Automatic annotation (TrEMBL):
Name the record gives this protein: MmcQ/YjbR family DNA-binding protein
Gene3D superfamilies xref list: 3.90.1150.30
A Pfam family: YjbR
Annotated source species: Runella slithyformis (strain ATCC 29530 / DSM 19594 / LMG 11500 / NCIMB 11436 / LSU 4)
InterPro entries registered for this protein in UniProt: YjbR, YjbR-like_sf, YjbR/MT2646/Rv2570-like
Amino acid sequence: MNIESLQLYCLSKPGVTEEFPFGEQTMVYKVMGKIFALTSLDSMPLSINLKCDPEKAIQLREEYDGVLPGFHMNKKHWNTVIAEGSVKDALLKEWIDHSYDLVVQSLPRKIKEQMT
């Protein structure tokens, strides 16, 4: 996955915005104002921070060399995924979906209703 395909995939989801709250080089994806993915435009290879269920986060770190505790994030709830090719795009999209879904599930019902 490259930065353009990450951008298109994230922005295709309901309620998602792309922002730069941490400076010009950190692209942040939010659903209804809550972060679910972020990446540095400088990182080579591409690395993406994704929210993750704590138990699943540990499992993924043990199973994949390219999955690390979330850089500059709460390491219990976030993973950093290095998208250098060892993780297939389909699997990375599943993890993006998981991150998005976790954030959506935590939103108040009133805000979820605004998404449709």
